[in-house]
Amino acid sequence: MTARTSGRSAGRQWSTTEQTRVQFLDAARVVFAQRGFAEASVSEVVERAGSSVGSLYHHFGGKGELFTALWERYRDEQHRAAATAVAAARAGGVTDPFVLFEAGSRAYLQATWANRDMVRLFHDGDTPPGFQKLLRQSGKDWVKDNFRLLGAGNSPVNRVLVALLTSFMGDARREIASARSGKEAQQLVDTMMEVLGRMRTVIESDLLAEISS
Q1: Would you state the pLDDT for residue 14?
Q2: Secondary structure of 93-133 in the HEC alphabet?
Q3: Is residue 212 predicted with pLDDT exceeding 50?
Q4: Any idea which fold 1-61 has?
Q5: Is the predicted pLDDT of residue 192 greater than 90, yes or no?
Q6: Residues of the chain with CATH 1.10.357
Q7: Contact residues for 108 (Cβ-Cβ < 8 A; gap 6+)
Q8: Domain with CATH 1.10.10.60 in the chain
Q9: Distance from first CA to last CA of the chain, Å, rounded?
């Protein structure tokens, strides 16, 4: 077998493996959202994915790991939506850190409606042991990302303000996920962004007060 043929075979194997993982994650999304973690069964996920129990354990190791992988996919999708919006704003000439933050925030919140089942599952549903620790660490990482985006100085006031902004985004996400329709969800996004704009005035006032003190 030539190296070229071997490369094609490796590519097909990777594609098949990734496709299998996606099928499991799509199936798990439906089952976990309907039943929660405790009541969801591996057999139901396997049946919906059209695969086997052995294949699930081969790719994920178990129900808990599958749940975590689903969370990671959701988290990455949400963050990718925000990062893409920030990059587009920068490409359009935006340099103001808070305006960049607003661009990312709007994209993040708008993406929430399509992932509303995941928001309710991960933040309000029953979860596997150790998952809440993962959520807390993810929240800390989110604060750090926003800290860098906003270019905030490393002072107690700035740390608290960025943490408050991040917390606001988390609460807004849950409100949008509980909306009764896509139209209501969009109205909530617009309202949240208006509130965020008002928060900017307060934040800038606090920062000026800190600088002058």
Answers
A1: 40
A2: CCCCHHHHHHHHHHHHHHHHHHHHHHHHHHHHCCCCCCHHH
A3: no
A4: Arc Repressor Mutant, subunit A (1.10.10)
A5: yes
A6: 71-212
A7: 78, 79, 81, 82, 85, 169, 173
A8: 1-61
A9: 73
Mean pLDDT of 180-200: 95
Top CATH class of 71-212 equals: mainly alpha
Residue type, 187: Q
pLDDT at 11: 45
| pLDDT bracket for residue 205 (50, 70, 90) | low
Per the prediction, the chain carries an average pLDDT of: 89
Residue 112 has pLDDT above 60, yes or no: yes
Half-sphere exposure (CA, 13 Å, Cβ side) for 113?
Answer: 14
Give the whole-angstrom CA distance, residue 83 versus residue 108.
9
Tokens of 177: 């996920």
Task: Please give the full DSSP string across 178-210, using - where no structure is assigned.
Answer: T-SSHHHHHHHHHHHHHHHHHHHHHHHHHHHHH
Q: Which residue has the tokens 């071997």?
A: 6
Structure tokens at 96: 């103001």
